[in-house]
Design brief:
Elements (H helix, E strand, L loop, with lengths): L1 H16 L6 E3 L4 E2 L14 E4 L59 E5 L4 E3 L12 E5 H6 L3 E2 L8
Parallel strand pairs: 5-7
Antiparallel strand pairs: 1-2, 1-3, 4-5, 4-6
């Protein structure tokens, strides 16, 4: 019972050392103000301690079995809050996506070369005719000019 009281005191001390508005502490000792535990410490090695309500409000006490010893007062280097953003409905997914229409002129027997990456794309590939800087040519010409197949997969066997 005494251990439970001491652990509760450690949790309260850790929460009071957290910056105002914090909802948890990450395993790399940074703090988060994320509204939910899921994804709150993404990129920060996960959640070390979850306070629930922002500090400054009445934060619920954590289970004694999951508490850690009280941390030292935060410094400027460990008080940055990790942020995650949810995708906006109707927006494009993150990462590069090819344009909807391919450049005119492609067809059977031709590959699309990406001049900036020295990669060529086969007909049917999502990047075929769609990179910013490129041209159509035969696969043999592309290889002769030093281009290599996308993901190492040649168009002809």
């Amino acid at each position: 019972m005494l251990a439970g009281l001491l652990a509760g005191t450690a949790v309260h001390a850790q929460q009071s050392a957290a910056p105002a508005g914090s909802t948890g502490q990450c395993k790399d000792n940074t703090y988060t103000d994320h509204a939910t535990k899921k994804g709150a410490c993404s990129g920060h090695k996960g959640v070390k301690e979850w306070y629930g309500a922002p500090t400054g409000a009445s934060a619920p006490a954590s289970n004694a079995a999951t508490t850690a010893p009280a941390a030292a007062a935060p410094t400027a280097s460990n008080t940055m809050s990790p942020k995650t953003t949810a995708p906006v409905p109707g927006s494009k997914p993150s990462g590069f996506q090819p344009p909807a229409n391919a450049a005119p002129g492609g067809g059977p027997g031709l590959v699309w070369i990406n001049e900036s990456s020295k990669v060529y794309h086969c007909q049917g590939d999502k990047w075929y005719g769609k990179t910013k800087s490129g041209a159509y040519m035969s696969e043999a010409d592309a290889k002769a000019k030093g281009y290599h197949p996308d993901h190492g997969k040649a168009c002809t066997q």
